[in-house]
Write a structure and sequence with these properties.
about 80 residues, alpha+beta, Ubiquitin-like (UB roll), 5-stranded mixed sheet, 3 helices, about 25% helix, globular
């Protein structure tokens, strides 16, 4: 399954790209598993996702928990923690 991945703010800066399209291995079924898969793609990914508990995730523009199943999603976005004011 092909999936568009978007990276925002310092995740984008550390990885060095704003987006990419990847073919998911069958073993990757949740957002948390995708983060682990990405961490293995290289040092820049390992650094960006060094603390996956603080990374926010959106599947098809809807924020979800890391244990959310990717299912038939077409897009997944990763965000650093957000602050507001």
């Amino acid at each position: 399954m092909s999936l568009k991945i978007l990276y925002f703010a310092w995740l984008r800066e550390r990885i060095g790209r704003a987006e990419e399209e990847i073919d998911l291995p069958a073993s990757v079924t949740t957002a948390a598993e995708l983060i682990e898969f990405l961490r293995g793609k290289g040092e820049e990914y390992a650094i960006a996702f060094a603390n996956p508990k603080i990374v926010r995730v959106a599947l098809d523009k809807t924020h979800v928990q890391p244990d959310a199943r990717i299912g038939g999603a077409r897009e997944i976005a990763f965000f650093p923690p957000m602050t507001g004011g």
